[in-house]
Amino acid sequence: MEMKKILRAMMDTMNSVKPPRMTALRELHEAETGGPFNILIGTILSARTKDETTTKTVKVLFSKYKNSKELANAKIKDVERIIKSIGFYHVKSKRIIEVAKIIDKKYKGKVPDDLDTLVSLPGVGRKTANCVLVYAYDKPAIPVDIHVHRISNRLGLVDTKNPEETEQELMKKIQKKYWLDINDTFVMYGQNICKPISPMCNVCKIKKSCKYYKSRNAS
After folding, report:
1. What percent of the chain has pLDDT over 70?
2. From 131's CA, which of 108, 142, 167, 180 has a CA 20 to 30 Å away?
């Protein structure tokens, strides 16, 4: 099944059930204040945290610290108080201040727009770096989180054991013009329809092309 049809069917499925809320990173992308630095920090904070929590927290954080210089000079305890609802907030408080210092001093407040430089930042892996490329710079990349990894394997697009392998396989198989839409659509689909437990196969409009669905319903 072509990626264009998959993405369209996913949106049609979600809209037929209940129009999905935007992902936290899409909300940051759409916000007036959603520049590259905010998206970088927002992505770091979003790891192992619900989107609703991430969205609320980053709004408060960025209302107090408006750029890399301000966050670089923040006190860890002050940042911890703001992001305490975020998973692993002790570690993340130190990390985002550390990243802010590097962005402020080494890159003069401008977030790098290439993968290799981004992954050299502390705590920034390929998924976070790719999110910055997609949501901050509209550069073709495929950020692979648990939702993208799970759904890609369930559909049979890939047969991989971890997100890194999934990213490499999707890059080989999917036309670059669709890369920008994959993370946002797959994440919403994973949160709303193709859930880890009890996926809503009954409403899914791509189940006939789904390897997972066929295996579950094999007679």
Report:
1. 98
2. 108
DSSP state of 144: -
C-beta atoms surrounding 215 within 10 Å = 10
131 shares a domain with 66? yes
In this structure, what CATH number is given to the domain that contains residue 147?
1.10.1670.10
Examine the pLDDT at 64 and tell me if it is beyond 70.
Answer: yes
Same structural domain, 183 and 89: no
Q: Which residues contact 4 (CB under 8 A, 6 or more apart)?
A: 178
Rounded to 5°, the CA angle 129-65-27 comes to 50
Q: 82, 60 in Cβ contact below 8 A?
A: yes
* Dihedral of alpha carbons 71, 75, 81, 83, sign: positive
Please name the residue that has the structure tokens 């999905």. Answer: 20
| 93 and 34, same domain (yes or no) | yes
| Each residue's pLDDT tens digit, 79-98 | 999 999 998 999 999 999 99
Length of the chain: 219
Amino acid at 198: S
Expressed in angstroms, the distance from the first to the final Cα of the chain is 23
Closest among 197, 158, 191, 200 to 3, alpha carbons compared: 158
Q: How far apart are CA 23 and CA 172, in angstroms?
A: 26
Is the same domain home to 187 and 160? yes
**Residue 16, both tokens:** 């037929």
- Is the whole-model pTM more than 0.85? yes
- Which pLDDT does position 186 carry in this prediction? 98
Whether 219 is in a domain gets the answer no
181 contacts 6 by C-beta, under 8 angstroms: no
